[in-house]
């Protein structure tokens, strides 16, 4: 059910440092003896931003985003269905409801229809493992406010009390940790479109904090303590400042005392003005792809469906990115120092549609051959080739390796690379998945002309891009 209206019980606007003191003690249990140490990080952005990003995240390079919720029931247009239908009253959404549902049908009536009847967490985990991803991020709660776990603070608008009557977060967490080597992460929307406490706070220009104190902060503490996510993907600040959300106070607890304090990774969406400025790594915008090296770790969160994060029953085949386009996104992103977070949208009954499963398994097939040029790599001095298009570079410094990933196989079988400088008798070049050293010619003042092997289509080590390992080049 939709949360009922609630009286104004929250405190007036308080300094961020005082907000954690208002939360019920059960949300902040005493840490074990080993965790009782002096705080390393203060609740200020200057202190929090100084925390080193846990090294596993940069090594991982590739993750899966999963947008799943009540919006998967109408599965029309976008996961913003409720907003576009009820608030903006976009004609196509209004007409969709008139054509398919009774006149008095409300959004909360979709809740019982979100059944997750065919949701098999083990099957999902096996698909994610096959994709070659190293982490997943599940939407534990989107802007509609429906939580995929039995939140004590959700007013029964959750997957345990409504719809599936199951703790979907727990089922996936257990499957991921028992069946895969992926890290488990959770997305959480700070705000909710139509929650009465949030709307009241907003009407007062966020000069009171009923919603964060009564709903959002308790849920975040509950999520971390119960499921111990190693990625906390915050979203949806609704133009409210970070002190309204008490973001710095929460993050100080997360980094100092939480059960995942040493391994957890956070993004940059913690209040108005924080995106691309504060947090563990930057997302900057949806589908962010700068095309050049950034000085701070970043992530390109993007969708296989070009137009929606949630499942769309009205999507056509041309609405989905091809595997060739997805490989290109991965290669470009990693060469520029980013991670790729590739999104799928399961159906309301818990099925990963065939088109999404195919793309994930295709990416895994490509990474089995070329993953050496992706995982645990670093940006090289040049991210792409100046002369030959669709060539991107990565490197492994300790091994003195540079990888040249090319996305078009030249018909002449001669590939020119303008950036590497090679040395005769020292430099060696191999095609990943082929094994035999390749012949090459050094060109002056710099650059290489590489002779690729004569291979039939079926002999190709991969289909949608290839990687060369260059040893001892500068």
From TrEMBL:
The keyword Lyase does not apply. It catalyses: an alpha-L-fucoside + H2O = L-fucose + an alcohol; a neolactoside IV(2)-alpha-Fuc-nLc4Cer(d18:1(4E)) + H2O = a neolactoside nLc4Cer(d18:1(4E)) + L-fucose; a neolactoside IV(2)-alpha-Fuc-nLc4Cer(d18:0) + H2O = a neolactoside nLc4Cer(d18:0) + L-fucose. Residues 35-372 form the Glycoside hydrolase family 29 N-terminal domain. InterPro entries: FUC_metazoa-typ, Fucosidase_C, GH, Glyco_hydro_29, Glyco_hydro_29_CS, Glyco_hydro_29_N, Glyco_hydro_b. The record marks 301 as: May be important for catalysis. Keywords: Glycoprotein, Glycosidase, Hydrolase, Signal. Residues 383-471 form the Alpha-L-fucosidase C-terminal domain. SUPFAM superfamilies: (Trans)glycosidases. Residues 1-35 form the signal peptide. GO terms for molecular function: alpha-L-fucosidase activity. One of its GO terms (cellular component) is lysosome. Belongs to the glycosyl hydrolase 29 family. Homotetramer. This is Alpha-L-fucosidase. It comes from Canis lupus dingo (dingo).
